[in-house]
Specification:
CATH class of the largest domain: Mainly Alpha
CATH topology of the largest domain: Cytochrome Bc1 Complex, Chain D, domain 2
Number of domains: 3
Order of helices and strands: HHHHHEEHEEEEEH
Helix content: 25-40%
Strand content: 5-15%
CATH superfamily of the largest domain: Cytochrome c-like domain
Structural class: alpha+beta
Radius of gyration: 21 Å
């Protein structure tokens, strides 16, 4: 699978090297042999750790750093080999620096696979589910909208899914629905705070540092605590989302709907 990215002309941080004809390609940048779901998951983890500081953990860019949104479509004159070069070496005289020299070619290819996966084309998939039925299940029997927001409507106790179809493949969506504890980002950990009087407050871990913790409870109320004033704090790293209580065909319908949620390019 060789997909490409769309980045506007003003987003030269990533584009400038990719579009240069005849750009030198490192020996490792020949063909991507690391393009499975597992590879993309590993690439996402490294991307978040090493690239997310500029491009954002969701790869949607950062106005402060000027790093471009990588989820916006198809890059003209871009290739996997050129993208490998950018990730590996960076772009001279720009804020785009290369990955750590200690990173293996496999790791770089996994990042390339993850970036490509941010721009999945629905026409590449023949999904058995029905989008309209999936939309009804999402808001109805599945209770998904209680926690997840889509285009400004829904809850805030889970990730915003408005453009999730640009970021996850159908099988990754299936895993998220059937085994939500598989890969829980720290942003979605919960905290259990036992106050000095023994009462307990539990909710999403919104922010935590050495001295304070901030969480949002199930009613979407915000709580702020000084750690010195409470009896204990506990991180809970499992997902708050229950496994989907859906039949096989209903699950297919919800997957089709969620995969249809995309950012307009």
């Amino acid at each position: 699978m060789q997909k490409t990215l769309s980045i506007g002309l003003t987003q030269a941080i990533l584009v400038s090297t990719i579009v240069v004809a005849g750009a030198a390609v490192p020996a490792g940048a020949q063909e991507n042999a690391y393009d499975t779901t597992v590879d993309r998951t590993m690439g996402q983890r490294v991307f978040r750790a090493q690239c997310g500081r500029c491009h954002g953990r969701d790869a949607m860019g950062n106005d402060e750093t000027g790093a471009p949104d990588l989820t916006t479509g198809t890059l003209e004159a871009g290739t996997d080999e050129a993208l490998f070069t950018v990730v590996r070496e960076g772009i001279p005289n720009t804020a785009m620096i290369g990955i750590s020299p200690r990173a293996s070619d496999q790791t770089v290819w996994q990042i390339v696979s993850y970036i490509n996966s941010l721009n999945l084309d629905p026409s590449d998939y023949n999904l058995p589910g029905d989008i309209n039925r999936g939309s009804q299940l999402f808001s109805g029997k599945g209770n998904c909208s209680n926690c997840h927001m889509v285009n400004g409507e829904g809850g805030r106790l889970g990730p915003d899914l408005s453009a999730i179809g640009n970021q996850l493949e159908p099988e990754e969506i299936r895993t998220a629905l059937s085994d939500p504890d598989e890969n829980v980002a720290p942003r979605w950990w919960t905290m259990r705070v036992t106050q000095s009087d023994g009462s307990v407050v539990e909710g999403l871990r919104m922010n935590e540092d050495t001295f304070t913790v901030r969480l949002m409870d199930a009613g979407e109320n915000l709580w702020n605590f000084l750690k010195s004033d409470v009896r204990s704090t506990e991180r809970i790293k499992t997902s708050t989302m229950p496994s989907a209580n859906l039949t096989g065909s209903e699950l297919d319908d919800v997957i089709a709907y969620v995969f249809s949620l995309r950012r307009e390019s």
